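Friendly challenge for the regulars: who can give me the structure tokens for this chain first? No prize, just bragging rights.
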Amino acid sequence: MAKVLIADELSPRAVAVFKERGVETVVNTKLTPDELKTIIGGFDGLAVRSATKVTRPVIDAAKRLRVIGRAGIGVDNIDVPAATQRGIVVMNTPYGNSITTAEHAIALMLALARQLPAADRSTQAGKWEKSKFMGVELTGKTLGIVGCGNVGSVVADRAIGLKMKVVAYDPFLSPERAVMLGVEKVELDELLARADFITLHTPLTDATRNIIDAKALAKTRKGVRLINCARGGLVVEADLKTALDSGQVAGAAIDVFPVEPAKENMLFGHPNVVATPHLGASTTEAQENVALQIAEQMADYLVSGAVTNALNMPSLSAEEAARLKPYIKLVEQLGSFAGQMTDAGLKGVAIEYEGHASELNVKPLTAIALAALLAPQLDSVNMVNVPVVCKERGITVAETRSTEPSDFQTLIRVTVQGTNGARSVAGTLFGGSRPRIVDVEGIALEAELGPHMLFVRNHDKPGFIGNLGRTLGEAAINIATLHLGRSAPGKDAICLIQVDQPLDDSLLAKVRAIANVVQAKQLHF
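First reply, four minutes later:
Bragging rights claimed.
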């Protein structure tokens, strides 16, 4: 009988679900990290919320563990790469608390508009400061939503019901989906300039970290009000405090913090700040939903091998998995490459399978490529839910096969159609198992991808390679591999470099300043 440890508070009904499906459970929500490491070796599954930290040392000690289930959306507390290396499936429940989190954002917006927490404290202290708490109406105001996915779209619906105008910034929100939601799709700078209230509903990724900083706040309307129920780290707290002190920001409501539990914070005590202890998903209904969902998903996997809402495992039979394994790595790299190169709105994706690849069961490969493509912006996307995500966002997906002879026995090409044009990347397998990039936007080159890559688009002129090498060398950046391609002598060229460590923003700026450089971007794999 499979055995699951429930390490965080879950609804008692979750235990009943496991029992009904023949899975033994142990509930222990008071474990220290060392205690968890000591006992985790005796379990096949681990169910958590956000309190338990599933670190690499815990995973290394989990010799028997097959699945980790997160009752909720974010997996910041789980070392997913470490779990993947060990072959442990990581599952979450991406849709279980969308309504609850959206309602909390609306509640915080109302609290800011009418200064409810401060007015409550004042009144209960025996004061009657009616004139001190002059609020603002929401009717007719403009709400700016940064991230219009599961939660953001619910917030938009509720705000429209409050007779607000809604503008949304989301690179993956299609114009058609925006019309369906009743929002106006805009770029971030326009949202900042127009919004009376700004609410954040985006995951914390390299693209969104510190998205609200001093520069962003300087672009807002004076007296804007900010709500963050998404992730700590989206807002530079020091910059927000400065803006609050100056009056550029009239008020801020914060439910999430970079360090949690947040026992102290520079924003605490500010008269124009409303703070709550990460209550976004804290309703009876939401906790019941996510507890039951994660119990069902984990039990199904442990009993029958069925996979639902997995972040790191494709839905494949055992026979297909062995055959597709090298192709899975290839399409992950192609999708991730295209996703990291896509900054504008995404309208469509075309995936072409040529040669041997065309003879495979390509449906899971397409799903994996799409999940990798969207991952830089959407941390909850996976091969199970990515078709729904694409449909909701109006992203068209085309899948084609060709057995016609080409330069390669097997080739897969991912073409992304964005609002600023199309981009493509193609790859093959060397020796039947080693992924290689062989074409980027029509320029042929051969490159093996490493963890840290520098992509440079340039004009093919003498001296460029020397200048680039010198710039990296002076910064003590070691070059592991360097791959070049060009469309024609003296024309457009591409340089793809594997380096031993990531580049900071100042060094990237120096690379972009090199003569004949058109674009420089850091990529991670």
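The mean pLDDT is 92. The radius of gyration is 25 Å. Your move, everyone else.
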